[in-house]
Amino acid sequence: MRAVAACVLVAATLSGLAWGEATAVHAKSSQGCAASKSLPKSVKDSHSSHSTSGSCAAGDADCLKTSAAPASACTGTIPTFFPTIKNLFTEVDHTAMLQIANLDLWDYDTVQTQAQTIYNMVSSKLMPCNASGEPKWDDAKLALFATWMNCGTPPGGSAPVPNFKAFVPNVCSNPVAFDPTVKNLFRVKDRNSMLTFGIDLWNYESVKTHAEAIYTRVKAGTMPCDGRWPASKVAIFQHWIACGRPELPADIEIPHVTPAAFAAPEPAAAPVAASSCDASVPTFIPTIRDLFTDVDHDAMMSHGLDLWDYANVKNMAKLIYVQVKSGEMPPPAFNRRWNQTYLATFKHWMDCGMPPGSPLPVPQCVQPAPTFYPVIKSMFRSLDHDAMNQKGINLWNYTDVSRMWGLIYMKVKAKQMPCANSGNPWTPLMVEVFKNWTNCGLPEGIQGAPYIPPPVPESMCTAAPTFYGPGPHPIVKDMFSVGDRTSMLQVQGIPNAPLDLWDYTSVKAMALDIYWQLSSGNMPCYGAWEPSKIATFKLWIDCGLLEGAAPDS
């Protein structure tokens, strides 16, 4: 418990809480246990404000603060951050603090800003954390750090640059850029994980600022947390840093750099003979596109790369080629490594200028085009939303769904989503509406806006249902049984919960959601509606969701 409490205090204090606030966190976590510290004699002698015992209760800010060292202590050899103070922090210290407090102990500006707090923590034996297994600082280390603080925190030499090996002269003539190459190295789940530390892996300025820390982590294999990057991805990120961290490519062709490029120049490639790039040269459509199976497409869409899109594959061609040649793609688990014919075809296409071929037929958009808000969003149940949210995809968020639409479409079309044990698959109509949304350019709509049904012939609505009645026409409220109403009142985690199926306002707000679940058989729980009954409910929606005469309250 004490070790955990100490780590909580380190994270809280170094993340910006006031010392008193952090101590309150510690006190609560450790049930009031106090920490003590003993200053080394050399430091005690320079701090007349300290008691002779040199021990303080945890959180005693006045006791823990240092005072300015006498001038005599700042003569002779004064420690500097590079290399002396930096080397006080081990690699374990450095990695731990990046993880729990997003602080880089190997960065001069960070340590200079937090110097007093760091000294408080190490001198009170709360840092390094017990859980890290690192030894506490001895008197010599404490004295060294205190002298550096009291003598003006001199930086010393320059920060060591990551060990980027010599490049061949032309490697940086057209370097990889953040968008799209470096950005696409990070998955949705990587981004969501690091957002909790204030780093947006899809934001250029954020990645540029934290590039060295990210590089250190991915090279060491401590990031991502679910498996280390292959060498080719680390090399791309290393290349991007060493070539000045450009945001956008100089032109559409983005060269790929392999680890071998950092060790020795590669022999110049033989020029492609003009005769080999004649009418027989493969084109993206249909030849190159057909090299990628549905499984390949699905897998890479989860990384934000559409292997069936010409611009995507052209921009990432060098990276794709390196990965398929090395066997990293398709993933080894698929047991479907490219053969030499596939590799030669792709390389031939690259060498001959990556021609697009005949364009595919333009998808037909059926008007009026559905919008994400509210039509597409209403297709995803709370169960679907919660399941995919755990994988870093928010099905109720336009940005996530518009980015991952290809993967989602493949899954719902193949009846792999929703999961088999969570309900019935989408109906053909639902799949077609989703496909039409993509054909129409993924229009967003307005979040929170009510659904406005498209115009229908007046003749269809001469006998339009109303929610409450009265009259000879169908009454929507009466379609829902007592059991239907009771079960839905108990459902939580859905928009506008609880859903009262006998209340006009409640059903109107969720009308589309209800329709999709009725048509797929996921609602009601006690047996699917007849098609004619579902058609009546849809007619009520199309004819304007008429209320009728509300009963007296």
Structure in words:
This protein is mainly alpha-helical. It contains 25 helices and no strands. It has helices spanning 2-14, 19-29, 41-46, 61-64, 91-101, 108-113, 115-123, 139-150, 178-182, 188-195, 204-209, 211-220, 231-242, 294-301, 310-315, 317-326, 340-351, 382-389, 398-403, 405-413, 428-439, 482-489, 504-509, 511-520, 531-542. The relative contact order is 0.06. Mean pLDDT is 73; it is low at 1-6, 15-72, 160-170 and 251-275.
Protein traits:
553 residues; mainly alpha; 25 helices; disordered N terminus
Order of helices and strands: HHHHHHHHHHHHHHHHHHHHHHHHH
Overall geometry: flat
* Rounded mean pLDDT score: 73
Taken as a percent bin, the fraction of beta residues is under 5%
State the separation between the terminal residues, measured CA to CA.
57 Å
Number of strands: 0
Summarize the structure.
The protein is 40% helix and 0% strand. With 553 residues, the chain is mainly α.
Sequence-ordered SSE layout with sheet pairings:
Blueprint: H1 2-14, H2 19-29, H3 41-46, H4 61-64, H5 91-101, H6 108-113, H7 115-123, H8 139-150, H9 178-182, H10 188-195, H11 204-209, H12 211-220, H13 231-242, H14 294-301, H15 310-315, H16 317-326, H17 340-351, H18 382-389, H19 398-403, H20 405-413, H21 428-439, H22 482-489, H23 504-509, H24 511-520, H25 531-542
Helix pairs in contact: 1-2, 7-8, 12-13, 14-20, 16-17, 20-21, 24-25
